[in-house]
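Quick question about two entries, pasted in order.
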Amino acid sequence: MKGIRSLILVAGAIVAVLFFISSSCKKKAPLIPIDNYHPNSITLQESCVSCHAPGERAPLKDTHPPNEDCFTCHKKQ
């Protein structure tokens, strides 16, 4: 009985995490363009922050949700 409760708790935690990730992308996020600034090989968030941080070439808008991982919402073309 105790094992079933633990399993239900773990399953609930997984569902909560997946819901949080999907809800952080409520509207369809723009695709990552393929251009000179966004090479097809871009895979690290640090590459995004170098241009999209405050005071950089293309800072994120104030309305942008907290960005833990850019690739959760933004996909490559």
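Here is the second entry:
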Amino acid sequence: MLCAFGVDVLDPRVSLRRVWVLGNRLPPWARAGGEEWSAETHMLALAVDHLAHLIYVSRAAAGDKGARVPKPLPRPALAPDRAPAPAPEPQGRGWAGVAAELATMDQVRVIRDG
């Protein structure tokens, strides 16, 4: 807590509630045994991967023979309970298929009416 927020939790003037609130708001790099990357960092790495693939496709479409398939950025290992589920078989074309594929992605919450 001292490194992340500058609050000494051993100080008797700091309440238990304050320690609890700060503990729940710790950044990922300050958590012991927590995630190494935040959700924003994972999304940024995904955007970089997609951009690299788009550049590769553009170069290949323009006839560049030296274009190589880009490798994705290395990610930190996930805990076994947080590992992504295997990719499902394609559901078919159309919005329903896309929605079904999105629903299986990690960090996606599906809300159904009725």
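Reply: The radius of gyration is 21 Å. DSSP finds four helices and no strands in the chain. Hope that helps.
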